[in-house]
Amino acid sequence: MVNNTIKQLRKQAGLTQEEVAKRARTPRAYISQIENGLRSPSDSLAEDILIKGIGLNYAQAKKITDQWKLQKVGMPQELQLIAETEFVTIPILCSIPCGEPEEVYDETDGYISLPGSKVPKDHRIFAVTADGLSMLEENIAPGDIIICDPDAKVKDGDMAIVKVEDGFTLKSVYFKDGYVKLEPANKGFKPIETSKLQIVAKVIYILKQC
Length: 210
What we know:
This protein has helices at about 1-10, 15-25, 30-35, 45-55, 60-70, 75-80; strands at about 85-95, 110-115, 125-130, 145-150, 160-165, 165-175, 180-185, 190-195, 200-205. The chain is α+β, with helices and mostly antiparallel strands and about 210 residues long. It has two domains: about 1-70, lambda repressor-like DNA-binding domains (434 Repressor (Amino-terminal Domain)); about 85-205, Umud Fragment, subunit A (Ribbon), CATH 2.10.109. Strands 2-1-3-4-9-5-6-7-8 form a nine-stranded mixed beta sheet. A hairpin with a 2-residue loop joins strand 5 (about 160-165) and strand 6. The radius of gyration is 21 Å and the shape is elongated.
């Protein structure tokens, strides 16, 4: 984690907290709080501490901060090992119901960074936050970040965000003769069958938050 990394690098460089703080133009108390896990620095402050404070070069600092970005979005260890050094920042647009369809508001609720190799080029990738329990058996829980691709083709059985008459929801999509079946992944919820819907985006990745 960020606190252990900064502490280890500072000691390896033979520097005191006071010296790092002076070089990075940051209060010594703040460096102490970071090293003890009481605060988490912003990306820009982390770079200042690593480059100006500890003396790493830009490439070394960027490799470390990129790993922190992966950790902050909950990227699994296997993806951390193969992640690129270049990242793509995408918006988190809203919370998406995973139960009964509801209206949602299209507004940006933050941003996350993903390895460029995991983001299809020229696609309008965005993220939403899961809200509801109907997809628990697909390992989607409230608060998880759902990465969506509106330019990807949704095939039979794919998970997708869809709009029906009552609003938006996230379900597995099955194409039937004359209608579409939206299947939950929780026995406590009933499927939705409709001939009137709009497929908004295919779910391409799930970032677990708990």
